[in-house]
Design goal:
dipeptide transmembrane transporter activity, membrane, globular, disordered N terminus, 7 strands, Peptide transporter ptr2, mainly alpha, Growth Hormone, Chain: A
């Protein structure tokens, strides 16, 4: 097993580092059968089945922290639409509609509600860039998470204040406090999200494939990539357990008691996040900040692009994408007298940066996918309000999405994916993401067809959302297909995106690459703002149709662009790991000595 040491830092956090030693994985039957032959041969790689290893217990505690955070986040955001869109029910000061009325508070309409929910989505997924930068450069992941939790707590408290009956009585004041709470909570959420998923994945330290013998006598390969994939699968499952319980309970709290309770209970649940993080602090593997790594990567890219620019954009593109772009920037390829002082890294780090850039290019297509997902808590919630709910709150149906994920994730992990591997089908991340786009398209087609039938059967026709209009005689459970399809698309696209960010990022830039993946949701929301005009009668069929078309185009061009990258999956995962860590400011004597030890042939002019 890995030897754990706890060196003291200069006034900073205690950092747990691991000295590599042979890992002893545990399999589905929780027994260890380690083959002494070690890493697999080429023949074994081609013929043996691959399995996941044991998930460390510390990862489960972090997953529970994520559950609590998602309970609190989705609990409050689930009721945003009704709080803003629907008017205050008669004879209710808290906004509770109880059995016979629709819950509401501010009565500002669907377009305003959609704008606010989309702003919240945009802001919460833009801020991960800031959280990742602070974590990688200054504080490290653990401290950044703790500070982010403090910010989010303040935001939660402000949301409770905006829903107090005396504040609701003054709609402008309530809206102002709500928006302030969203801004502060979103800042904390962003810092939390960009760091919590790398933190959980780095608890698993085995990096090399290993051949082992199962109790059945079958030889298999323990693949760290599959273990990381499993960690993210169940991390995402815990996200949705939190989301499901938070959303359902807060909908009923809103419906029967009032919005203040829908904001108060998530705040109480959120308190468990810092408690668990503090209790388990000394047990976590915590990567320290690397200070200058981001600036070094930018210097590297600038250095690699020297002489590549042309007034001819086609020529520039060809120069920047030719096979020698990164190869010629490796320290071993640069004459000693031409190496800049900051070039203290090794060739392996250049390969890792190149791989990370490829991952970021993959993520650039995600905004077109997230447009489909973003319909859940906005337009699909409003769609349910004009259907026959049989007494159910209109925002309860969106919980079919996390409920489906809780059921489907174990099925995919234990049945579908292993079955495909046994059949010899290599279901790589690029293929999964492509399927995620396609199922997102199918979800939007379902929603568009359903909306068409609502208009056809509503007593008010294409003015179905009119408050004075009776619901369309269509059972609200007809939305089930859209929510289940979106859930399947998340397993393929969203979970795989988190996995891809962690496994393809440079070892000292995990948070940053993860934040690039997350911020694509913010860009998607920005694109969604352009279509807010479609989020109203009589244009809602077009709203879902446009989302389907954009995601379909994304699926097609995504596969066309990355089908060759798909063939490089094992090669990218098996890159030699860099020993470059990085520190603040220019290269120091210590860093230069480390660089010289890595590359004995390297001669650097000391600053």
């Amino acid at each position: 097993m890995a030897e754990v040491k706890s060196p003291k830092t200069d006034g900073g956090d205690l950092v747990i580092s691991h000295q590599e030693a042979p890992a002893v994985p545990v399999y589905y039957d929780d027994k260890d059968f380690v083959n002494e032959d070690g890493t697999p041969t080429e023949e074994e790689l081609a013929t043996l089945r691959r399995v996941a290893g044991q998930v460390p217990w510390t990862a489960y505690t972090i997953a529970f922290v994520e559950l609590c955070e998602r309970f609190s986040y989705y609990g409050v955001t689930q009721v945003f639409t009704n709080f803003v869109q629907q008017p205050l029910p008669s004879n209710s000061a808290t906004g509770a509609g109880r059995i016979i009325q629709q819950s509401g508070a501010l009565g500002l309409g669907q377009r305003t509600a959609t704008s606010i929910t989309q702003f919240n989505q945009f802001w919460a997924y833009l801020m991960p860039l800031v959280g990742a930068y602070v974590a990688d450069r200054y504080w490290g992941r653990y401290k950044t998470i703790m500070v982010s939790i403090a910010f989010a707590m303040v935001g939660h408290i402000l949301l409770v204040v905006c829903a107090i009956p005396s504040v609701i009585a003054t709609p402008k004041a309530s809206l102002g406090v709500m928006i302030l709470g969203i801004i502060i909570m979103g800042g904390g959420t962003g810092g939390f999200k960009s760091n919590i998923s790398p933190l959980i994945a780095e608890q698993y330290k085995q990096e090399k494939k290993e051949v082992v013998t199962l109790p059945t006598g079958e030889k298999v390969i323990v693949d760290p990539i599959l273990t990381i994939s499993r960690i993210f699968m169940y991390f995402y499952l815990m996200i949705n357990v939190g989301a499901l319980t938070g959303q359902i309970s807060m909908v009923y709290a809103e419906h029967y008691v009032g919005f203040y309770l829908s904001y108060l209970l998530p705040t109480i649940m959120f308190i468990f996040c810092p408690l668990i993080m503090v209790i388990c602090r000394k047990k976590y593997v915590r990567t320290p900040a690397t200070y200058s790594v981001l600036s070094r990567s930018m210097q590297l890219m600038a250095f690699a692009s020297r002489g590549k620019w042309s007034i001819n954009p086609v020529r520039t593109y060809k120069n920047l994408t030719d096979g020698g772009f990164w190869e010629n920037a490796k320290p071993s390829k640069v004459p000693a007298n031409e190496r800049p002082k900051w070039m203290t890294f090794d060739d392996q780090w250049v390969d890792e940066v190149s791989r990370g850039i490829k991952a970021c290019k993959v993520f650039l297509w995600y905004p077109l996918y997230w447009i489909t997902y973003n319909q859940i808590n906005g337009n699909l919630t409003s769609q349910a309000a004009v259907m026959d709910t049989k007494g159910l709150p209109n925002d309860i149906l969106s919980n079919l999405n996390p409920f489906s994920l809780i059921i489907l994730i174990p099925i995919f992990d234990l049945v579908l994916y292993p079955g495909l591997r046994k059949m010899g089908f290599n279901f790589t991340p690029i293929k999964k993401i492509t399927f995620g786009f396609i199922t997102g398209v199918l979800a939007m087609i379902w929603a568009a067809v359903l909306q068409y039938h609502i208009y056809q059967k509503s007593p008010c026709g294409y003015d179905a959302a009119n408050p004075d209009c009776d619901p369309a005689p269509i059972n609200v459970w007809a939305q089930t297909g859209a929510f289940v399809l979106i859930a399947i698309s998340e397993i393929f696209a969203s979970i795989t995106g988190l996995e891809y960010a962690f496994t393809k990022a440079p070892s000292n830039m995990k948070s940053l690459v993860t934040s690039v993946f997350l911020v694509m949701s913010a860009f998607s929301t920005a694109i969604g703002f352009a279509f807010v005009g479609l989020a109203n009668d009589p244009l809602l069929v077009w709203n879902y149709t446009v989302a389907a078309i954009l995601a379909a185009l994304g699926a097609f061009f995504f596969w066309i662009q990355f089908r060759e990258l798909d063939k490089q999956e094992d090669e990218l995962n098996n890159l030699a790991k860099t020993t470059f860590v990085g520190n603040g400011g220019p290269a120091t004597e210590t860093e230069l000595e480390a660089a010289n030890a890595r590359r004995s042939s390297l001669v650097i002019e000391k600053p």
